[in-house]
Amino acid sequence: MQVDAAINPGNSGGPVLFDNKVVAVAFQGIMGAQNLGYTIPLPVIEHFLKDIEDGTYDGYPELGVEHLESRNPALRADLGIPTGISGVVVAYVDPFGAAAGLLKPRDVILSIDGNTIADDGSVGLDGNSVEYAEFTERKQCTEKIFFTVWRDRKTAAVIVPLTRKPDPFIFRQTYDRQPEYVVTGGLVFCPLSRGYLATLGNELNTPAAQRLLYTSRYAKLDNLYKGRKQFVVLAGRLPHPINTYCATHLNQILTSVNGQPIRDIGDLPEALKKSSDGFIVFRFEGNDNPLILESGMLQKSELEILAQYNIPNPAHIEKQEIAQ
Amino acid sequence: MRRILAPLFSALAIALSATAQTVVPPHQSVVEVIVTAQRFDPAVPWKKSKQETRAGYAVVVAEGRLITTEDLVRNAVLVELRHPGDATKITASVVEADPRVNAALLAAPTAGLTPVEWADPVKPGAKIQLVQFDEAGQRQNGEGRITGIEVATLPSSVHSLLTFQALTDLKLDRVGAPAFHEGRLIGLVMQYDEASQTSMVLPSALLKRFVEDVGHPPYRGVAVAGLMWSPLIEPVKRQYLGLPNDDRGVLILRTIPGSSASGVMQAGDVILTWDGTPIDSQGYYNDPDFGRLLLVHQISGRRHPGDTIAVTLWRNHKSETVQLKLDAYDDSRSLVPLNTEGEQAEYLVEGGLIFRELSADYLLARGPQWMIQSNARLVTLYLTRALAPEKPGDRIVILSVVLPDPINVGYQEIRDEVILRVNGSPVANLKEVFAIRDRDKGITRVTTQTLGVDLMLEKTALDEANRRVAKIYRIPKLEHRKQSLPAGPHRAALK
């Protein structure tokens, strides 16, 4: 919600009043404009307060559906949509979204909670025209949402229980959590994350960084995530004679160590223990050139590097949220 | 009159220089080149970009034949030559141009000019003379010195080649300025950096080979081995491969599918000797002419496509010698071709959907930040799989953009999407899309990699939509199909 009151540094969190009642919370101004500010509107605040009533914050439920408009006559004919019926065509269902397994591509969503969806995806709500996804945003996780869909040339009712499943491949900004990492031989490995991509900055215009960017955007669309829980990246190198020749592999995705696939950062310490003939062989995505360390030298270097760079712990690995 | 006399005159000149063992003043073989060039817009394949004019130099190498750099005549619509100080312009044609070596051979009357002689290979430190002409046609002579000889990336392509670095006292403002050593051509200047006063020179050794190769048609281009390798300097990796720690050998990372290397070599092999010469752990060998050079020159600069060479490999902890027949470099065999020369892309506009194949120039056209500006999936395909089609002829077919029209309503936001099937049939390249369109008299169903729903076009409305799109978007032709080209580099012969 935009207001024409000045919002200056220090005002964030202040109330926006209307008739002596709070209608929003101030949070940001616009640089280069006078007296233009943005505030968090009531529906968002109410959603948040209701969410934390049970003591835990779940966040907004996510449907995980991408759609196409259903206006195209040839597309309508292909899906057998009768004239006079409007809605949106499901083009992609996110495997981690609430609708996974319930809605599918080629479904035409006709209504949401009893409200008709127009061909462009809009729904009339409180006198406004809003994106149909707004309906899910107004609900809490654990609530349900009711769809009427056109599927296999007839209507069907679909009930989607709203959830927010842990999705390691959405690469959202995370807060208040120490990043996971493993340091071995001065090589710093960490899972690919939004925070990590943000650190790349000027390096984004390099092939290795592009691969990370592609991975973060297309992990699910191109099925890169199959068989993995994380993408583990060689994020840094703490220079030491053992890793003199390792800099060329920075920002690349680790696929295996000593033949053991690396599906998440937790696989790494185990795989490091299985040396093959006294060598540790690291392989990276899209790189035919492996990185090879000698296990004896590696073991000898570990404490030395940790001491030299003042690293209290060689690894930080969170316990998996989902039971394996 | 001038034309008739010309052959007599130059024949006389050659005879004189041969018998007297004296060298003709080099500037008598140099002409100015004025090029009007216009390339096709890599993003809008039916549109030509704004025309540009370039100026440079060419050097007479034989009666009626001149050599210059390929980047000077790239996408030329008109090539004109001018004798320094003479206002008369002579039209020239491009006999052959190869961006892989940045060399072009021109054909034009060369009356009054004397062919150059080729200089023998030089060592760093060799003195050179440079010649260029000012606006008035006044000759400017410069002096310089070869400061380095190395395989480096060319200024106008992604390819690497033998180059000279030269420090000169003349501010060189045009491409193709000739450099001489003791009156003989040592190379053509490809690039000049004013701040450091250094030039990048295309060596005459390569130019001479190019001229000879063009003289024996068909021109087959540069030899390639079809493999990727990496230096092997890490002691631990050498130990792992069981190699002696003697500073020899490079690691083969990958062989290009379909190349002749793919049959005889494999990833993990180590190249110990190449063509009879030891290769060090950084990929250098000792060239008899130019000293320490990267392996690349031994392939592209000393051998021809079709030559068979012996390679000693370290494989499974022992050495083994294999015979390798070198291939000709052929951009069209790539999954994502470079199209360095900027040829018009093949395309098809159907119902406002633009179908084309992914190529490097399409991505690079987005400027220095092209990696960030382009679709991440397409960038990654180019960066990681460009040279490796699963089967010969494979390309990435894309829906580059949708030109809004009533027939494609609902699809207009879609761009740079990979196309898997057209009218239900899988498509491996644009030729197959053309074939399906011809067979079915129109494209009505497009399956993309991302969308789980096919993009449909109404068949009965297609013809009218195509006419409308052509008119509104001013598309002169709704498709461009290339005649199937013979293997080898592009022939830019101008009529």
Task: Please tell me about this protein's structure.
The complex is a heterodimer of chains A (324) and B (495). Chain A is of the alpha+beta class and 324 residues long. Chain A has helices at 42-51, 73-79, 134-137, 194-200, 207-218, 267-273, 295-308, and strands at 2-3, 15-18, 21-29, 37-41, 65-69, 88-93, 108-112, 115-116, 122-125, 128-131, 144-151, 154-161, 181-184, 187-191, 232-237, 253-257, 260-261, 279-284, 287-294, 315-316. Chain A contains seven helices and 20 strands. The longest helix of chain A is centred in the C-terminal third of the chain and has 14 residues, at 295-308. The relative contact order of chain A is 0.09. Chain B is built from eleven helices and 30 strands. In chain B, strand 2 (52-62) and strand 3 form a beta hairpin. The model of chain B is unreliable at 1-23 and 486-495 (pLDDT under 50). The chains are: A alpha+beta (324), B alpha+beta (495). The A-B interface holds A 68-75, 77-79, 89-93, 104-106, 204-207, 210-211, 213-214, 217-218, 221-222, 244-245, 279, 281, 286, 288-290, 292-294, 297 and B 228, 230, 233-234, 236-237, 239-240, 251, 253-254, 267, 368-369, 371-372, 376-377, 379-380, 383-384, 407-411, 444-445, 449-459, 461.
